[in-house]
Design a protein that fits this description.
The protein has about 475 residues and is α/β, with parallel strands linked by helices. Helices cover about 50% and strands about 10% of the residues.
Length: about 475
Amino acid sequence: MVTQRTQGLYRVFLLCQIVLVAVLFWFGVWVMVTFYSPGAELTWRRYSIYCGLLVLGMTVESLVRDGSKNYFLQNELLRQHRLSMRQVFASIGTLVLYLIATKDAFISRIFFFNFVPWLYVALLFSHHYLPSFLARRIFTGAREEKTLLVGSTEKAAQLRGWLRRKADIGLRTVGLVCDEQIEKTADGIPVLGNSDELEKIIVERGITQIIMLEFPLFTEINRQIISVCDHLGVRLLIVSDLEEKLRHPVTHFEDDGFRFIGLREEPLENPLNRCFKRAIDVTISLPVILFIFPVLTAIVWLAQRLQSPGPLFHVQTRAGMQNRQFKIYKFRTMRPDHAEEGRQAQAGDERVYPLGKWFRKLSIDEVPQFWNVLRGDMSIVGPRPHLIEHNKQFSQLMANYHVRAFVKPGITGLAQVRGFRGEARNSADIENRVACDIEYLENWNLSLECGIILRTFVHLIVPPRTAY
């Protein structure tokens, strides 16, 4: 998770730098043409080529840069100066090579030599201020991770600088769990209790992430902490210099000089990936709400008036990302007078009015959830959100059930397109769905996202047997 956030922020930062260079270039061209060469003509084609070469140089420099992204959040002026100089030489060098190769003498030398120092100053300021500015805007609110440290005060002190730097990407240290009889560490981190009180502390403090500062000596303690984190849907990172088996799939990564072991990769912790996913959500949901939803509303309303008068929508409280509750909207397909809210729908369910069965089979009842997608409560693709009581019931069957809450719930998902939908009759049904949900969050990419959406459209045309 930390690596995904850092790498994603680094790419957003580079993108902003490229935009900054392009804006600065065109501003300089405008100043030159307007104030210093009032009779000159702005040749868009030539200056567009020059601007593109500057951007190309910046991009190539970022691709060949070795390890700089691990430290771009550190405010070291000397390092920022060196990076700015590298970028200036790369971008201006690319442009100069082009001018020499093509014998292009069109560009103004006065403009050129005035632009170079301003480019350096702009890049230097962007290195100093832009990363922390972007981090504060991206990793706030729901994206802030309440982090609990588990281990000794000595290990916590070693991690002091890293924790301070990672506060910029949303890691807020809530406290420390250790067996030492003190109220707080020398750095002011409050000691909240000992390892026996871990589960209680997580629930009371709303902890979303745990960092184990060292491997415990007893493997049973390892398994207990992993079990608690999976059961409560809490991320677990382990500061480690050992290759040790935890009886659980793990991922190894290094960040800012420290080595960690996490339980899984999470591509959607990358802000660029989230941006692409959100763009897909809005691109699909907006036309559905504007053009398809009104027509279906009229059809469903008429069917209800004829067969089951009552409210048009069925509104329920569901568990969303990080198990935060939200109101989900569906077209009502059951009779309004039944009192079995928590019972799962079954084939031939007597509560469903006749046309409601077709609405459910064709997934028409799910269309109002596109409004939930636009609101940001849900996504097009993700784990299906369950009732709160079903969440409690299913979490008793699977220790890692709440891991699926690391991402937004969806209208459709990997489990649904693989046929795991409808009533969950036994623990195997739940295990299959949760396995698909975890596979999705660990392996997310654009092709997987688009593939699930396309397969969902196929299921709308040819509904599977489990659709009822």
